[in-house]
Fold these 2 entries.
Entry 1:
Amino acid sequence: MDYINTRRTLHQIPELGFEEVKTQKTLLSFISEMPQNHLEVETWRTGIFVFVKGTVPEKTIGYRTDIDGLPLQEETGYEFSSVHEGRMHACGHDFHMTIALGALEKMAEHPPENNVLFLFQPAEEGPGGAEPMLQSEPMKKWRPDEIFALHIAPELPARTLSVKPGLLFANTSELFIDFKGVGGHAAYPHRTKDMIVAASSYVTQLQQIVARRVDPLESAVVTIGKVEAGTVQNIIAETARLEGTIRTTSSSIMEEVKTEIEKLVRGMEISNDCTITIDYGSNYHQVYNDETVTGKFIQLMDELGYEWKEADRAMTGEDFGYMLKEIPGFMFWLGVDSEAGLHQSTLTPKEEALEYGISIVTDTLYHL
Ligand SMILES: CC(=O)N[C@@H](CCC[C@H](N)C(=O)O)C(=O)O
């Protein structure tokens, strides 16, 4: 398989969660070109399971990749930029998929001793594919004993990795807040309930939750990533909508932050004489790396001469956390050296990281 070409093909067709129809078709076509003797392939919604039968299996090792893109207009200037308007693989899932395909090809050509289950999982960016995929029939049939995954790290040099036992990624909850007041003429604000003023004031007050309500020894983030309100410059907005995300390093702090968000909403309803509704969208469980399996991985990396460093905890979220809640395993960061970070329209990971990633995953699947 030509990894660069594979990555570029996938890069051009990013699709949102549970809409990954072309992506699934393209992945199935790559998989169909591999030796099939030891493979069983099953689709699940827009995802795919591939079971590789081991030669003398004692256990099944799972390897998961996410496959969805983000609602973002690409600005990399690549010749192979996204052909889907307003969609981009800006979180590296094109890299993740290529690495999974590369490792799968090796397994198909030289079957491992243990069984291996590849999970091509939809909807990591939302609304979350890991939790329902865990409950699916193929997962019940081929349930792994251990599982792992990787995520690209733009800030790390290519051909490096980082990992740590214990907490790696945060608990997350999406946040959607809808404001409803009374619209009207821009010249008569006193006859209206202006939802742009209410929503702006709410965004400012939200910042106080982390600064003044959360124990400074804990970690939390509340980010509003989208504000929607108004129609034209001289009409006062009747409605406003805020979209954001909450991140915490413990589930109890998540509950505290939500309570504070709701208290602020009640105060805002009274002071602005409006109604406000909150929807928490999808929630992701924290990514907690199992100490024993992560320890085995670290030892393997040392034995095989891979350069690695201790990872820092990150406030990113990953629904792979649900898989790790039920199956011992880990996630590691793979360095890809890009000046622009994750979720930026100019993310340009170095393609030399692909072969390195495939080599780490393949070695781990053969020897874990
Ligand atoms: C690794 C990464 O960037 N993951 C996403 C997960 C998004 C979860 C959900 N849609 C939310 O925004 O809460 C992230 O933004 O961390």
Entry 2:
Amino acid sequence: MSQPLTAVSLSGVTKDFGRVRAVRGVDLELQQGEVVAFLGPNGAGKTTTIDMILGLSKPTSGEVRVLGIEPRAAIARGLVAAVMQTGGLLKDLTVRETVEYTRSLFVDTKPTDEVLATAGITEIADRKVAKCSGGEQQRLRFAMALLSDPALLLLDEPTTGMDVEGRRAFWQSIRQDAKKGRTVLFATHYLEEADQYADRIVLVSHGTIVADGTGSQIKSLASGRVVRVTWENADTEAITRLGGVDDVEVRGDQVYIHAKDSDTVAKYLLTQTSARDLEITAKGLEDAFLSLTGTTDSTDSTHSTEGAQS
Ligand SMILES: Nc1ncnc2c1ncn2[C@@H]1O[C@H](COP(=O)(O)OP(=O)(O)OP(=O)(O)O)[C@@H](O)[C@H]1O
């Protein structure tokens, strides 16, 4: 089989807004046909990164390439399309008129009926945009993005406002196109959505990538337990050397050890160290997300996410 082509490449990308560093040295490569979730909390830098891939803004430093060329050149060639959260719709046009109008701006496009069908909005084609629900408007944006049959599709929280059935149909259609080689990068806050629909999850927090792997790799970070002990002058290095330890956090005299094999950790702590008052709790997916994206209140912590790096 031939080597997959690189659809998106970011190297050493940073973006500053005045004194705010929104993106801090991101290196990322997406291969053609991958469906990748860009997962992170509010303000993580997802939209800023997508804007740079779309050529809407330039990195402060580093380089962005789309299918081997400058983002703006890739857009000009109709290779890239996006579904953003807001804007871009004229309320007085019908759904069909909106697609027809957008179509008139391109040289080579898919037929209107085909994109309406793929986006699941054939039945509301004659409805005015103003009368469409938020989820229906998102589907209309999706239909417009499909017109140029883009090699790369960028989606910023695409299913906002869609009901369960709408989401399912939307993702089914995305997955079908990915099989034909389309690369999809979507930003989301939802771990479940990322896990269910992406081949790969890139977890971002405070402008950096904190984990990058398949859903099951990311979930394996969450599959372990947390061992908490009271331990003055903790020797965290020794703990990190034990097998299966993902993360060690120190908060004053409390030490939290995130580990796959909590029995070994507990045995070691109680027999080889002065740690006491030991407690073991199971860690959920949501907890893993929060601890990896640094949205817990741990101020004095060390993180290690090597387990999820691909
Ligand atoms: N035009 C701007 N001027 C100043 N600061 C900005 C600008 N755009 C983004 N930021 C800041 O950059 C950081 C990253 O924002 P960004 O919108 O990329 O995050 P996000 O991950 O997309 O968040 P959300 O999930 O809320 O959409 C935030 O701290 C934000 O306040």
